[in-house]
Amino acid sequence: MSDSRAATGRPRAWLRDHSLTLAFTLLLLGALVGQALTGLAGYNEQARDAQLPTLSLLQYLTSSQFAVDVAENWQSEYLQFLLYILLTVWLVQVGSPESKKPEERGRETFEDQRIGSYATSGSPAWAKLRGWRLILFSHSLGLVMGLVFLGSWSAQFVAGRSAYNADQIQDLQAPLTWAQYLQAPDFWNRTFQNWQSEFLAVVTMVVFSIYLRERGSPESKPVGAAHDSTGVDG
To answer: What are phi and psi of 196, to 5 degrees?
Structure first.
């Protein structure tokens, strides 16, 4: 292959190798744009009805109204990931490709996890070590997901209080303190309405994947796999 063909092939290969991440990133950006535009339209419509000042797009993007809506969705998503990562270490669902096999429950052995002397040449460097670095790397996914969840939940709390108090002041009512908002129905309603939708999505994915198939998807068992086959990807 000529140098020009190789140079042309490299970007194409990179796009192919990262196409799933790129596709969801574009979908995320598109959804954020849609949320911003429709949220701004809805906010300004209410502001005009109440004879209050409207916002520009930039003002809306930096407002607590937009921030709390984004943060409350993000925190629930990362809570879903965190709980699924941790619970699937020990809990199983026979027949689901989303589950480990019952006999594989638990943290598994060094050999199963390719840790220490069982590490291969392609294993990450910290998987070949002992001590705190191995412990940290062994739980790094759960730790990062947990930190992002706590960060986005905190952002929801801060932005939610600001948005709630803005409405309070507009209605000539006293704003809430941090402690008062922590106990307020608004904060917990925003939280629970997102959590329940995430838990519903997980349980339906686990159960539906026992009996239903999507040919070629790694989230599905092979079309001809038995319903009770567990931890088998398509």
So the answer is: -65, -35
